[in-house]
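Notebook, bench 3.
Goal today: get a predicted structure for Threonine transporter RhtB from Streptomyces finlayi so we can plan the truncation constructs. The sequence was checked against the plasmid map this morning, with no discrepancies at the termini. Length recorded as 212 residues. Pasting the sequence as submitted so the record is complete.
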Amino acid sequence: MEMGTALWSFVLVVGLLTITPGIDTALVLRTAALGRRRRAWGVVLGIQTGTLLWGALTSLGLTALLTASQLAYEALRWAGVAYLVWLGGRMVWDTLRRSGGQAEGADADQPVGDGMFPGWRQGLVTNLLNPKVGVFYVAVLPQFIPAGAPQFTTGVLLACVHILLGLVWSTALIALARTLRGQLQRPAARRVLDRITGTVIVGLGLRLAASE
């Protein structure tokens, strides 16, 4: 397979993966829709940092341990399950314990929670604790590295292509969420958004727990 053919084939595969709804899409949409634009971009950059790490580790052959060692995969899988259930459950719980619309309205105007670093950390942890991303890279990335090409350099280059597609898609998601910001500033709408997002995230965690 020539490099040009491999590159365009990889773009098609990861392009479809990028636009498939999942935990990344839910986090970016929810964060941006609440008006936390800086934190939303932090989440995006954290997710893409995780993608770069997965690509680099796969190119070095380290993520093959996930498929070779059942113990390593199970440890990472259950850590991911615990994190997703905690993250989604906390969103739902916070909506149940809020006392009233006045406190939420005040919070909506405050910059608290809109820092880029907390968002980056959340996106990075979410990505790294998803073992299916690592398994995907182990199974897919080597197939798009042409024979004779430098494995590490080519693998990182392909991961950067994935990151570029992710940034483009995230830009569209944040722009969409910004158009809905006015409606979602209402306390009732914010509660509904957090409950839906939290339930989806918990569901993804439970699905990860049930997967083989």
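Confidence is low (pLDDT under 50) at residues 99-112. Residues 3-210 form one domain.
Flagging this for group meeting.
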